[in-house]
Amino acid sequence: MEYKKTTPDNTVTRDLIKIAEETGNVYETVRIIGKRTNEISAEIKHELNEKLQDFSSSADTLEEIFENHEQIEISRFFEKMPKATLIATQEFIDHDVYYRNPAKEKDNIEDD
């Protein structure tokens, strides 16, 4: 995944009220971003585990553990990645997150 390219490298202060204008409710916006954050975290964890799976063996000696530079580089790359919350917030701002509220849809159907 190309998460590194989707979020800014520096810290950005965001106006949560402005972000919430799309849904009309701050709490709903936070819930949407939170659910997307959990999805992104799971994807990143799965990707990291797949890459580190190549290095696992049942009989590592102490020297092999300390000399495994490739594994260290992979871990450093994932540590430097932006946090899942920042990624999810940026996706929401860029309108890359699909969401729906079944309760609101039900109210709209009943009003018609």
In oligomeric terms, what are we looking at?
Answer: single chain
Following the backbone from N to C, one meets helices and strands in this order, namely: HHHHHHH
Q: Proportion of β residues?
A: under 5%
Structural class: mainly alpha
Unreliable sequence segments: none
Shape, per Cα inertia axes: elongated
**How large is the count of helical segments?**
7
Structurally, the number of domains stands at 1
**Number of β-strand runs:** 0
Compute the average pLDDT.
Answer: 80
Largest sheet: none
Separation, N- and C-terminal Cα atoms: 42 Å
- Tell me the Rg in angstroms: 20 Å
Percentage of residues in helical conformation: 55-70%
How would you describe what is shown here?
Helix 3 (26-53) runs antiparallel to helix 5 (69-80) and helix 3 (26-53) packs across helix 6 (84-93). The protein has one domain (12-111). The chain starts with a helix and ends with a helix. It contains seven helices and no strands. The radius of gyration is 20 Å and the shape is elongated. With 112 residues, it is mainly alpha-helical.
Quick structural gist:
The protein contains seven helices and no strands. The chain has 112 residues and is mostly helical.
